[in-house]
Fold this sequence. Notes:
heterodimer; A: alpha+beta; Alpha-Beta Plaits; four-stranded mixed beta sheet; two-stranded antiparallel sheet; about 20% helix; globular; B: mainly alpha; Formate dehydrogenase/DMSO reductase fold; about 0% strand
Amino acid sequence: MTHTQHRWGMAIDLDRCTGCAACVVACHAENNLPVSTPELAAEGRTAHWIRIDRYYQGEFPDVKVKYMPVLCQQCDEAPCEPVCPVYATYHNPEGLNVQVYNRCVGTFYCANNCPYTVRYFNWFAPQWPEPLPLQHNPDVAIRPGGVMEKCTFCIQRIKRSKEDAAQEGRPLADGEVRPACVQSCPAEAMVFGDLNDPESKVSRLAGNGRATKLLEELGTKPKVFYLHKAT
Amino acid sequence: MATAPDLLPYDRIRADLFRPLSRVSRRYMLATLIFFLVGAAGLVAWGFQLRRGMGVTGLQRPVFWGVYIVDFVFWIGISHAGTLISAILRLTDAAWRKPVTRAAEAITVFALMIGGMFPIIHLGRAWLFYWLLPYPNSRLLWPNFRSPLLWDLTAIVTYVTGSVIYLYLPLIPDMAQLAEHNTPWRRRLYGALSLGWTGSDREWHALERAMKLMACVILAVAVSVHTVVAWDFAMALAPMWHSTIFGPYFVAGAIFSGIAALIVAMGILRKVLHLESYLTRRHFDRLAKLLLLMSLLWLYFTMAENLTVWYGNEPKEMAVFGARTRGAYAPWFWTTVFLNFVVPFVLLGIRRLRTIAGATIASASVLTGMWIERFIIVVPTLANPRLPSASSFYRPTWVEAAITVATFAAMAMLFMIFAKLFPMIAVWEFQPHPQEDD
């Protein structure tokens, strides 16, 4: 490895995605997301750091459904960052768009300014039905009511892997860090890695002719690449 | 031609305007109590929201800004009554302004106090609002001055400070008069507040200069404040918010609703305080013409905003445009056009209808219309984000309604208390040659 700094990115192959939502479930378990109820869902109060958007092509009965997992795009020019008056959301040295829960006062401005609508608010103090509180991930903070949150690229796993590698005195291998969504995708549609390493799988996929970025025209410079056959 | 009150003897004016201060009727107490109770109910609703969480509002992803932000923009808009009317008229030496300015300046201060609360009511963790203030803190963090919310905070704090001074300065000679013969506690109050005013030539000149200066300053601040409020929206990368027209559009809308608020307040004061010979049809007529002008300007801005979007036909913007003009929010949009343009145009455009009652009705219509207009600006954009899967529909809850109604009651209550402490019309302005009096 020649570079010293990581720059994390993700590639999602939409031609592989079946819309099974395993990533959504895995994310909930990994990141201590509250479990919703039908009532809360009807009120639009659900939080999923990754969601599956569905696009329909054609007229019934000849309908084709396209699935698109949408998570925080970890923009390099993130519109959510400058608008926060208390620096609760900022860019970390590895290019991640980080949310500091303890700093957040809940102005909602970041969420308004996110063109991907991937920011979620804690409308109430989070609650889980028994026995789910017993399976909370100790590496992830439980967010109080009144703060904004969103996908972190499983920063706790990035940290763990880096520490493991450092302890064993070796560089971090490509594919060693796997966020929960990537790990759980049965179709292996999602790939995570270091965009600063030109040899990494994600870098190669990002350079693929099928790769596009979501709402690229806004100039937000997302670090999530969507691969799909040009139709 | 001199205005009507100028033809009255000064002693009569003095007696008329100081009279409401010493009399507290049973009806006054009852009305104040009712307003207080409605306001207190709003505080209870806010307490409930603080305890349970923001989920008690109708806000939901992606409509993160709702009625509270609408209220905020509305009240900051109302605050433009005082500064613009009173400052412009003061600077242009319009003699007819005399009975109007005090009420306008008071509206400004109270509307700002109320409007300034909404960004705090709206916070997810309202108890931490002071984290937005630049103060040395244990987190070693300076607030983020790149955020339009910080510009907003700076602008509003400046505006409140300026308007309080601007209301206070012309009160000084009146308070000095009030300190002369009064009940003991009032003597102490006015004596302290009038800062030892004796009415010497030097003091009059200093006051004159200070008021002129403040009028200039407050005009610039008022325009900038509402521009910055508009930029809270316009700086965001959201369809139909991200627009250069928002600054001037909001300033015009603010002056529009400010004049309307002033006319409504004058209509009520005239009846309640029996100021028929002070607030005459002439005053209403002039302000009504100003309101008509602003109504046309509002229509022009609304056209300019929507026509360019419609002609451009950009899909993301058209989703919002469609929601406004044809979709879920269309009834409100067209109500706005009716209340802000049709009603004032008919009532104020036809001379026969431009009476005191006509102007007051048109102003009430404009106030309602401008509140809904802010709703139409804030909500449809958020409800139709760029990725259509996240679209939703926002319906406010009783908590938001209770807090909104409470602020109107609070405004009425503050105004009523003010009317018992200070004369609603600047008395000294009618004094024949006050400078040479002593």
